[in-house]
Specification:
Chain A is of the alpha+beta class and about 475 residues long. Chain A contains 19 helices and 19 strands. In chain A, about 40% of the residues lie in helices and about 20% in strands. Chain B has a three-stranded antiparallel sheet, with no helix packed on it. Chain B has a two-stranded antiparallel sheet with strand order 4-5. The chains are: A alpha+beta (about 475), B mainly alpha (about 475). Chain A: This is Peptidoglycan glycosyltransferase.
């Protein structure tokens, strides 16, 4: 009977081998997928319970984990919830948004850069803590932006402010209104958290939206900076030339007659470039757009960052759009002053201003300055990255002069700061259908060596008379002053 | 039995010292894991560690001393392996007790005590395993009776969809676990007598020698019984186990692989029919095919088990650091998932290797055993453990559909633990007989009454 016993031995060996291979597959190869499975409450619970790293602005945490004595060991706290909610996002059981999501690996301690720290923790028998994320935000600029915007749009208003350091691309301020309190969503009382979430989700003002990167609207007259850049860069127009204008302009094809909404400085057939910019003459920029042609205008817009998304530090940012396809002259003319189908996010318009301010070079915008271990040792610092040259240095200088004139003696006068040269441009984008327009304002200062570029967008300001200069200008001014002290 | 003189000249060493040394290592596993549970959950060694460790050590030492006394030539590896598994199981059950506020570990320690007591009793009472061969049909009837018990109204009890429990007052009991052991003796006793008749050549079809039609009787009977268990008790695991056990023993006894093909075909046919017609079986298979179809309902247990294994990864979360209480029945059928989560792949492989060692030692005893009955019993018991481990571990790791069997020595459960300790006693007895230098008995293993019906054997038994 020994022969079949040996056969049975082999058979048993195969059974055990099958078990071992299967369990090795399960615990080694398949483990990662299973751990990331959306329904895996076990992993989510462990992550939710872990001591997460802090998100830091200046010297203060704007998100941190504090010990908790309920069923989870740590609770996520947001010390300045309303001010930073759109940036931090919030941590909830098995989900997170904003920086909590994009920097999750660092904050949760799973990032490979924290591997050594994890080993040390393992040896010391300490639970591993997540790393910290230091932001580029300037706390004073952020506060100034938040409060100035709130004052501008009123308690029921909607809008956004983005400030960038032109030479590096560092984001100095990023505000979106209305804001919310992420503490209410991060609470361990899941029922209350669920209720808070539903209330925010049902709010038609969409507080959970980060308008700085997720809302794209007609940029209106602020887009004239792009048209002017294309004109100057093409060589067909020089800053001292006269440009075509007129009280009205009827492009070829169907479409409305373009006028200047009562700004009589624009009425002459030929005006200076400075006048066209300072008085935001629609007819002048519409004509220039048609003369430059669709391709030149689109190329210029794309060099500034339209039709692409170059911002990685927050999840779900949207691309700004410059329309593609053969545009009829009538649409091209409207595109030239930021109507028709051009749409931009506040971040995009801040990038436009920043590129002009930085001698034509567009820097990649970023929000994460530094990644640190739990003990605040620097693990990695973000290096400023040149995205592309949007316009030549000469054209940038000319454009700066035009924008300084716009502040000094034109429509953007509200943003003027005594003793400083400020470059700026207003925008009031028509929505049609009798709805109030969107207001925009972009600016940078000091004009000759800019340290800050700002874009202000006002989407809704109930009960207020909406105009780019009137509402947006003071906000931009406040932010610039906060940065420059 | 005619034997090779050269082989008989070889004398096995007793190696009881090695067994004692290995037992100390096994105790380190059991008591160490128990201490680690306390450290992991409360940050301190449990206060009753001395009492607990002492009790465990006492049980192990008693078992060792008894083996020294009445089975001095027994295999030295089996007992330490079993002690390590039982000790680890106790620690894990304690771990789950802490999480779920239950007290299964205390029961388990009590049942381990009963198991060791029966182990001792078995070694003392059964001085020669061949005695058991005399009770072939008695044991067969008893095991059938035990299998029927859960079906009786009043004492039968359905737990988690399978009707395999009986409840007598406060005590509940799984008769199948005992029937499993008794059936091994029944099969061995029957087969050792009828093996030659069953081994006669039948038809040859496609390289396979198929048995004669009239010899199909026993296999048909076993098939029927297995299907009854499957359909009436809804117990896929036991059904597979009994039939698989019978097939393996039939194959070993007759040396004809044809039986395996016939049997497998019959079982697959029956199982396929059960899949279609028996809701419980169909559901188990559907869960196996796609546990995520209903992850919060029918697939919950398996999905949680898989998450547990994955969360454990290579080295585990550490005892007390995981959440094995997420898996329903984690102290029971799913105890390996708890081990996988808190001790990782390394521990799971180690546990599988320990089971592999038990099976290997059982088959080794079968190989060197001098009598056919002993060979068959050792093969049967080894195969029972191998099949059971395969079905359970394969079930919780989604290699095969989930069935309701326990993990030998690890799972909480009195019937299973006690039955498995008795299995170890019998394996030790057989290996003791096999390794003894001088065969005490030679050709007296077959009952003269039975011998009449035998076909005269012309070939050497040692082929």
């Amino acid at each position: 009977m020994n022969k079949p016993i040996r056969a049975i031995s082999t058979f048993c060996l195969l059974l055990f081998l099958a078990l071992m291979i299967n369990v090795s597959y399960l615990q080694f190869w398949a483990a990662e997928d299973l751990n990331e499975h959306p329904g895996n409450a076990r992993v989510a619970e462990a992550a939710f319970s872990r001591e997460r790293g802090a998100i830091i602005v200046g010297r203060d945490p704007i998100a941190r984990s504090v010990e908790s004595d309920d069923r989870y060991e740590f609770l996520r706290k947001y010390p300045k919830p309303w001010l930073y909610a759109n940036v931090t996002g919030y941590l909830q059981f098995a989900s997170q948004t904003g920086l909590e999501r994009s920097q999750n690996e660092i904050l949760s301690g799973e990032d490979p850069r924290l591997f050594v720290n994890r080993l040390v923790d393992l040896v010391r028998n300490e639970t591993n803590k997540g790393g910290n994320v230091l932001l580029t935000l300037d706390p004073e600029a952020q506060e100034a932006a938040y409060h100035a915007l709130e004052a501008a749009v009123g308690p029921e208003g909607e809008g956004s402010v983005v400030a960038i350091e032109p030479k590096t691309g560092k984001i100095l301020a990023m505000v979106s209104l209305p804001s919310y309190d992420p503490n209410e969503l991060a609470t361990h009382d899941f029922e209350a958290a669920g209720e808070a979430y539903r209330a925010l989700e049902d709010d038609e003002r969409e507080p959970l939206l980060n308008r700085a990167i997720q809302t794209r609207l007609f940029p209106g007259s602020t887009f004239k900076i792009v048209t002017a850049a294309a004109a100057l860069d093409s060589g067909d127009y020089a800053v001292d030339d006269l440009v075509p204008s007129g009280a009205t302009y009827q492009p070829n094809g169907v479409g409305n007659v373009i006028d200047n909404e009562g700004r009589t400085a624009c009425d002459a057939e030929k005006i200076t470039f400075e006048t066209a910019m300072a008085w935001s003459c629609n007819t002048a920029f519409a004509r220039m757009a048609v003369e430059l042609g669709e391709d030149a205008l689109r190329e210029q817009a794309e060099e500034f960052g339209f039709n692409s998304d170059s911002f990685d530090d927050l999840p779900s940012s949207v691309e700004s759009v410059f329309p593609t396809g053969d545009l009829e002259d009538t649409f091209l003319a409207q595109t030239g002053f930021g109507q028709f189908e051009v749409q931009a996010t506040p971040l995009q318009m801040a990038m436009v201003a920043a590129a002009v301010a930085n001698r034509g070079t567009l820097m990649k915008p970023y929000l994460v300055e530094e990644v640190q271990s739990a003990e605040y040792e620097t693990l990695e610092t973000t290096d400023p990255e040149e995205l592309r040259s949007a316009i030549g240095a000469g054209a940038a200088q000319d454009l700066t002069d035009l924008l300084v004139a716009t502040v000094d003696e034109g429509t953007a006068n509200v943003a003027a700061i005594p003793g400083l040269s400020v470059a700026g441009k207003t925008g009031t984008a028509q929505r049609g259908d009798g709805l109030p327009p969107y207001a925009w304002f972009t600016s940078f200062a000091p004009a000759e060596n800019a340290e800050v570029a700002v874009a202000v967008m006002i989407q809704e300001a109930p009960g207020k008379d909406i105009s780019g200069g009137g509402l947006g200008g003071p906000v931009a001014k406040a932010v610039m002053e906060a940065v420059l002290q | 039995m005619p034997n090779n003189a050269g082989l008989m000249g070889f004398v096995h060493r007793r190696r009881r010292g090695a067994e004692l040394f290995l037992l100390v290592l096994a105790l380190v596993v059991g008591v160490g894991a128990y201490a680690a549970v306390g450290l992991g959950v409360d940050g301190e060694v449990p206060t009753n560690i001395l009492g607990y460790g002492g009790w465990l050590a006492a049980l192990v030492v008693v078992a060792h001393v008894v083996v020294r006394m009445v089975a001095p030539y027994a295999d030295p590896v089996l007992l330490p392996v079993v002690a390590a598994l039982n000790g680890l199981g106790l620690a894990i059950i304690r771990r789950i007790d802490v999480a779920e506020d239950t007290s299964n570990a205390d029961n388990q320690l009590m049942f381990m005590t009963v198991g060791v007591a029966l182990f001792v009793a078995a070694l003392f009472l059964i001085r020669d395993h061949r005695l058991l061969g005399r009770y072939t049909y008695t044991l067969g009837l008893v095991s059938l009776g035990l299998l029927v018990l859960p079906m009786l109204p009043g004492i039968g009890n359905e737990v988690n969809g399978a009707r395999i429990w009986i409840a007598l007052g406060p005590l509940s009991f799984q008769p199948g676990e005992v029937a499993k052991v008794l059936l091994v003796f029944t099969f061995a006793g029957y087969l050792v007598v009828h093996r030659d008749a069953l081994a006669l050549a039948g038809r040859r079809l496609l390289f396979i020698d198929l048995p004669r039609g009239r010899d199909l009787g026993p296999i048909l009977a076993m098939w029927g019984i297995s299907l009854c268990i499957l359909i009436l008790q809804k117990d896929l695991g036991s059904s597979l186990l009994f039939f698989g056990l019978f097939l393996v023993m039939l194959y070993v006894a007759t040396e004809r692989a044809g039986w395996l093909f016939v049997g497998s075909a019959m079982f697959l046919g029956g199982a396929a029919a059960a899949y279609v017609f028996v809701g419980h079986v169909g559901q188990r298979v559907d869960i196996w095919l796609d546990p995520w179809a209903d992850p919060d309902g029918s697939g919950y247990q398996l999905v949680q088990s898989l998450y547990g294994f994955a969360w454990g990864g290579l080295i585990g979360q550490g005892l007390g650091q995981g959440v094995p209480d997420r898996i329903p029945e984690s102290h029971n059928d799913f105890i390996l998932a708890a081990i996988g989560e808190e001790l990782g792949l390394t521990a799971v492989i180690a546990v599988l290797l320990l089971y592999g060692l038990i099976v290997e030692r059982a088959l080794r005893a079968a190989l060197i055993c001098r009598d056919g009955f002993g060979k068959l019993v050792a093969v049967g018991l080894g195969s029972v453990i191998a099949l059971q481990v395969f079905v359970v571990v394969g079930g919780v790791t989604r290699l095969v559909p989930l069935t309701g069997l326990t993990t030998p020595f690890l799972s909480a459960g009195g019937s299973s633990l006690v039955a498995n300790w008795v299995i170890v006693a019998i394996l030790l007895r057989i290996s003791d007989q096999a390794r003894r230098p001088l065969p005490a008995l030679t050709d007296q293993d077959e009952d003269p009454d039975e011998a009449k019906t035998q076909v005269v054997k012309v070939v050497n038994d040692e082929r």
